[in-house]
Amino acid sequence: MATAFRMTRQSYLILLALAGQERQHGYAVIKLVSELSDGDVTLGAGTLYGNIDRLLDAGLVETAGEEVVGGRQRRYYRATADGADLALAETRRLAELAARAETILGARPGGTPIPRPWPGAAGPALGSV
Amino acid sequence: MARRSDRRGVMGELGAADPLERSARFWLRAYPRRWRAAFGDDLVGVLSEISAAGTVRVPAREAAAIVQGGWALRLREHPPLLRWLGYRFFERRLPERYQHWVADDILGRFWFTRYMSAVNAMSMVGVLGYFWLFSSVDPAVAVDTVAMMYPSMIGMSVLLGGALSIPRRRKAWQRHIAPEVPWMLLSERDRYRTVREARGA
Q1: Cα dihedral B84, B85, B86, B89 in deg (nearest 10)
Q2: Chain B interface includes A26 (CB < 8 A)
Q3: Better pLDDT: A79 or B152
Q4: Structure pTM?
Q5: For residue B26, which of B47, B54, B52, B53 has the smallest C-alpha distance?
C-alpha cells in the first residue's frame, strides 16, 4: 500500500541507487550511495534497512529476488515506477533549488560564479546519475 | 582497510557462533519476528561485509540505527488506538493492512499475557460495576481489592501461558487471520494427521 513518504537525504540517495536498470543488493546500495554522494554519506546496515523498510512500505521500492552467496541469503531490491518518478521529481526539485541558490549567491557583490557539476539548468537526466 | 568478509572461511559462511552475528541478532530483536525471518540474514550479511576485520560487536551507532528502524517499523504497523482497543478488548477484526501486526501479535511470546490482561481488565470493570451498583461495600475497599487481584491474575496468566495459550492462539488466528493455522499453532493430533496426509499424498 502506498503511503505518504517523508523524503530524507539518505532515502533519496538509496532511491537513486535503486532507480537504475540493475537490481541491487544491500552492500551494493551502500557503495552506490557513497559514490553518488562523493563519499559524504556512508550508510550503516541499520540505517540502510530502516530506509528500505520505509521505501518498501510506501511502494517506492520492491524486492527483486534473492540468491545465496557465500552461504548467506542475499536479497535484491529495485525502485518501482512510482519510486523512479519520485526520484526524478526530487532530483528536479533539488536542481531548481540549486539554480535559485546560484542566482542569489551570484548576485552578491564580489560573488564568484559557482561552477556547475552538470551542464544545463535542470540538472542531469535520472538515467545518467 | 581489510574487511571482515575477507576473513571468512572457504565457503564464506559466518557461523551462528560468530560474535558479530550474535551481537547483530541481539539488536535485531527490535524488529518483529516476521521481519527478522525475511530480512534478518540479509542485514547481518551486509553488516558483516561493511565491518572491519576483527569486529566482534555491533558499533553503538549501528545498534542505535537498528533499534530505531525496528521500532519505527513496529509503530508504523501498529493500529491506531481505537482500533487497537476494539481488537484487544472486544476481539474486533482489524482491517487488512494490519494483518501483519496481528499475526506478529498472536505468534508473539507474551500474547497470552496480553490477551489475559485485557480479559482480566474487563472482568475487573464488571466486578467494580457490580460493587458500585448492587453492593453496600465501600467503593474504596472494592477498588483496593480489584487492584490487588489484577496483578496476581496477570501473574497466573504468565505462569500458565505456555500450556494454555496454544488453543486460544489458534482460535484467535482463525478469527483474525485465516482458517488455516501455522504449524506452531496446530495441536499434536493435527500435526500427526498433517504429516500422515502429506506422506499419503
Answers
A1: 120
A2: yes
A3: A79
A4: 0.74
A5: B47
C-alpha grid cell for residue A108?
552578491
Distances (CA, A) of B11 to B49, B52, B64, B130: 15, 19, 31, 68
In B57-187, beta strands by DSSP E: none
pLDDT tens digits for B111-168? 888 888 888 888 888 888 888 888 777 778 878 887 888 888 778 777 776 667 788 8
Cβ(A77)–Cβ(A63) below 8 Å: yes
Closest-approach residue (CA) in chain A for B36: A49
Q: Chain A, 58-117: which have a CB under 8 Å from a chain B CB?
A: 66, 69-75
ipTM of the complex as predicted: 0.75
pLDDT at B11 over 60: no
The Cα angle at residue A110 between residues A109 and A113, in degrees rounded to 5 = 105
Sheet holding A24-25, edge to edge: A24-25, A72-79, A61-69
